[in-house]
Amino acid sequence: MPRTRRSKKIKNTSSGNSFHDRDALLGLFKQMYLIRQFEITCGEQYSQGNIRGFLHLYIGQEATGVGVLSQLSKDDYVITHYRDHGHALARGLDVNRSMAELFGKSTGLSKGKGGSMHLFDVSKKFMGGHAIVAGQLPVAAGLSLAQKYKNEEGITVCFFGDGATNQGVYHETLNLAAVWQLPILFVLENNGYGMGSSIERVRAGGTDFYPGVSTYGIDTAEVDGMDVLAVREATRAAIDKIRSNSSPYFIECKTFRFVGHSYADGQKYRDNDEIKSWRNKDPVETFPKYLINQNMSTDQEISDIKSKIDKQIDQAVKFAENSPNPPMSELYKDIYRD
Amino acid sequence: MITEVTMPSMGADMTEGTIVNWLKSEGDVLEKGDKIAEIETDKTVVEMETYAGGVLKKIIVNSGEKVDVGTLIAFIGNPDDELPEIEERKSEAAEVLEEKVENTPISTPPLSSLESLNSKQNNDSETQFDQSDNKPQHEGQSRTRVKASPMARKLARENNIDIALVSGTGPAGRVTKNDVLSYVPSSSINSLMIDSNRNIDAKNIPVTTMRQAIARVTIRSKTEIPHYYVTHEIDMTDAMLFRNQLNDVIKDQGDRISVNDLIIKSLVNALVKYPKWNSFFSDEQLLGHTDINIGIAIALEGGLIVPAILGCQNLSLIEISRSSKDIGSRARGQGGTLTQDELTQGTFGTSNLGMFGTDTFAAIIVPPQAGILAVGSIKKKPVVKNDQIVIRDIMNATISADHRVGDGAEAAILMQEIQTNIENPINLFR
Amino acid sequence: MPDILFRDAIKLGLQEALDNDPSVFIMGEDIGAYGGAYAVTDGLLDQYGPERIKDTPISEATFIGAGIGAAIAGLRPVIELMSISFSLVGFDQIVNMAANIRYMSGGQVNVPMVLRAPTGAGVQLAATHSQSFETWLCEVPGLKCVCPSTPYDALGLIRSAIKDDNPVFVAEPAMLYSKKGEIPNEYYEVPIGKANVIKSGSDVSLFSYGHGIKIISETANYLEKNGINAELVDLRSLNPIDTITISNSVRKTNRVVLVDTARKTGGVMSEVASLITENSVDWLDGPIVTVGSDNVPWPYNHDLEKKAFVDVQSVVKAFEKGYGV
């Protein structure tokens, strides 16, 4: 019988310690800015018709993905939902090949056959964006089951949104992970909306999820998802616990997307004031200010970083533009392994 | 300049023709006189020549289709000529269909029948379907739609068999594989053989276009024309003597009268006397002809043709002989080709199997002619003449006559006239 | 080893895999302590322990998904579903995930996973437990689907399925678990994608698979007495389907009867009929006769169920109607 675990409330803990050396902190900013610029550029390219299909942007949620993924080792599996660009870039997936995948080109991560919602890079144990809401949770359990079965060091990190919590497999997977004591970190990116439906409208029991999770006997934490340092801190603690106990852990990050669910979303379901108030916490704006205030960086350095990343993104677009479309023969490949 | 090619008329009675085969393809360069298509009439298959040179720009009527005389079937022109716009030609079936669509309001099946269909299973669903054509289909019936299995069609196609001629034994008269296989003539005399190990070459013989045409014509003849037969035993002794004497006289000029020439001449003279037999039956009247054109059955390797000597009423015996030889060699591909008139304008037929030792046989009338005269071999036989048994040269001749044109007595009278003519060969100089 | 039960043939295949490959493990509802609803896995828990014989919660979607995760992480899970009808609960994972993940990752991952489930009607389990969803599953590219009809094929196919680097669904006719059949002592495999000409014949080709093989065999015996020599073809593999063996048989006999024990509409044989039309229409000497079970929810009552189920009489009748013999 698994015991009921304690929930931990984690506040901004960005007080200086060795964990907070300058390069590591600047690295967090670089990743968040890279994601932001990548997403803004994707929007532009979408409006020009170079990217088609659905496009779900991660703008506003950068601190969550970057904070969590900064604490993983190369042995850990990452699996996520369809708003996956941020996680892919934070996991270190190639920027050019990510952009090329969105362009549907043969140089894309999945040779142009997956698209925005299905970014994969197995060499980085990045096991995909998945587009059926909550569909990745059972698979995440299987990844961590394999790690446990094979006695491996690594753990599995599974991202999902608040929309996933109303799917049966969400509850089933929490149960299975607890029953089988799997080394898995569940990261709920609670941005308040499942597409256009606010939590209040579709969930009984309030806007917090972690209390319910603890009834499965899983350790939980709630964290400010706009605070990259807080997310990082919570993740480090969680991973320590998972590795030492070989047991699941659940972090709920309170976050917000500043843009629509997908590119073509008029956001009629929420008002501008709400967006504005969250914009004040924009990690891509506030975190560099914090670094400068702490004398860990300068305006000049931040601006140099930004222009370097801007160029990197421009190059990624050129790379994607200049890449060939997949040959027609690719249609029939990768269905079965011989 | 664009030239329209139309379905040619190959005889006054010809109203429609079938393009058996295009001998040229679109884009082929044609010279005037090139054979461009095989046209089948009621009577025969004729190679159609082009009267214009140029490029075969477009084929309008495809192989296998039957159209009225005068129907546009192709365009010939210069490579850069533009084709005039033509109205889309509809197949007969499409027209029928269209008519139906126009005339019958389209209705959806009532819901109840759909429901019952859904709940019915394969065991008893046949009650839901139209039973109207579940009757066995008879030979020759409904040329437009033949029920045949795809396998049967494939076999028929490979063996040049007209699937419409094969009678079906499958459900609802469907022509099956076995029906086609048994339709192909093959050795069937095994039961008479003593040595059961003898190898019979029982391979299926592909049916040629010509054989198809023969099949069609003879079937039409035997199904439409009520044949009856009158046989006379003709004493050819004097005619043979006459022929030998005459040939001695004319051999220097390169002529030689055959027995067949004697028969044709005696037939011509009889037809002059009884012109009713030189006519075609039609529902309203017997269509009389001013020319007597005697068809001669010629067995070619590919099959039978019956070209005619035209205007026989004005030809002497020697002229008939010359024409007959000429037609024979042209039929065998020597010294030119047979003309469309020769191939299609016959008014009365003759057939001779004498060279094979045949005594008596009856021929099938070439429609729409009124009759055909079939003669066997001349044999020396003991006959009673003036109460004496004497040896004479005897030949049997049988007329196949169209009962719609004339009755038995009339045919017998015609035969009598022929017999008189040939037994008194002086008549052949008339 | 002459005779073996169908269920034991599958079990033998599982045991071999567990013995020879440490990455193989089995998951499912009540497969361990209980021994499996159809006793296929009976005794395996004692033999291999709970890490490799894993009882799951009643969460089909999640343990199928977990199987997928384990498979893409390098294990070779074999998952038992208590009924093929329960695959519907996990259809998202089977179709969206297992079958598609290789393609949408551009070939980066593969899912060497076996899903096994009893299929078919005939034992009075009523509508929810009598269906034959191999008919749906065999449509899905990226997923293979097989259905054995004998202990020999069951063992041969389970061996091939576990060795396959792709997800394979093994539909096991529930009516066959307690049927006996011969298997040889030597090792063999039945390749996925190959149909089996059970009996050569000249007059008509009878096609079926799974439990339907019993029906076409009896049909052939009946026809034999009436002078008709039937060829019997067991599809065995529903995806990929063995178009060559099908075409060869059709072109030889020119007559075709297709028999589904599943509901006729949308059954496997609809696809076979389509393939025959495409590939061999010119060799058909009549209609492609398709026979299947009734398009109704499976009833509980024995007599009703029997009426809905395809039988020899209906096959013979359909053949006679189609070909007039």
Give the secondary structure arrangement, pairings included:
The complex is a heterotrimer of chains A (338), B (430) and C (325).
Chain A: E1 7-10, H1 22-47, H2 62-69, E2 77-81, H3 85-90, H4 95-102, E3 126-130, H5 136-149, E4 156-161, H6 168-180, E5 184-190, E6 193-194, E7 197-198, H7 199-202, H8 210-214, E8 219-224, H9 228-245, E9 249-254, H10 272-279, H11 283-293, H12 299-322
Chain B: E1 3-6, E2 16-22, E3 29-30, E4 35-40, E5 45-49, E6 54-59, E7 66-68, E8 72-77, H1 92-103, H2 111-119, H3 150-158, H4 177-183, H5 209-224, E9 227-235, H6 237-250, H7 259-273, E10 279-281, E11 286-288, E12 294-296, E13 298-300, E14 303-305, E15 308-309, H8 317-331, H9 340-344, E16 348-352, E17 371-385, E18 388-402, H10 408-423
Parallel strand pairs in B: 12-16, 16-17
Antiparallel strand pairs in B: 1-8, 2-4, 2-7, 3-6, 4-5, 6-8, 9-18, 10-11, 12-15, 13-14, 17-18
Helix pairs in contact in B: 3-4, 7-8, 7-10
Chain C: E1 3-5, H1 6-20, E2 24-28, H2 44-48, E3 53-55, H3 60-72, E4 76-80, H4 91-99, H5 101-104, E5 114-119, H6 126-129, H7 134-137, E6 144-146, H8 151-163, E7 168-173, E8 180-182, E9 196-199, E10 204-208, H9 212-225, E11 230-234, E12 237-239, H10 243-253, E13 256-263, H11 268-280, E14 288-293, H12 302-308, H13 312-323
Parallel strand pairs in C: 2-3, 2-4, 4-5, 5-7, 6-7, 10-11, 10-13, 13-14
Antiparallel strand pairs in C: 1-8, 6-12, 9-11
Could you characterize what this model shows?
The complex is a heterotrimer of chains A (338), B (430) and C (325). Chain A has one domain: 3-Layer(aba) Sandwich (Rossmann fold), CATH 3.40.50.970. Chain A is 43% helix and 13% strand. Chain A has helices at 22-47, 62-69, 85-90, 95-102, 136-149, 168-180, 199-202, 210-214, 228-245, 272-279, 283-293, 299-322, and strands spanning 7-10, 77-81, 126-130, 156-161, 184-190, 193-194, 197-198, 219-224, 249-254. Chain A has a seven-stranded parallel beta sheet, sandwiched between helices. In chain A, β6 and β7 form a beta hairpin. Chain A is globular. Chain A starts with 6 loop residues before the first strand and ends in a 16-residue tail after the last helix. Chain B has a six-stranded mixed beta sheet. A four-stranded antiparallel beta sheet of chain B has the order 1-8-6-3, with no helix packed on it. Chain B has three domains: 3-77, RNA polymerase II/Efflux pump adaptor protein, barrel-sandwich hybrid domain (OB fold (Dihydrolipoamide Acetyltransferase, E2P)); 136-224, Irregular (Dihydrolipoamide Transferase); 227-429, Chloramphenicol Acetyltransferase (2-Layer Sandwich), CATH 3.30.559. Chain B is an alpha+beta fold and 430 residues long. By secondary structure, chain C is an alpha/beta fold. Chain C folds into two domains: 3-182, 3-Layer(aba) Sandwich (Rossmann fold), CATH 3.40.50.970; 196-323, Rossmann fold (3-Layer(aba) Sandwich), CATH 3.40.50.920. In chain C, α11 (268-280) links the parallel β13 and β14. In chain C, α9 packs across α13. The N and C termini of chain C lie far apart (43 Å). At the A-C interface, β3, α5 and α6 of A face α3, α4 and α5 of C.
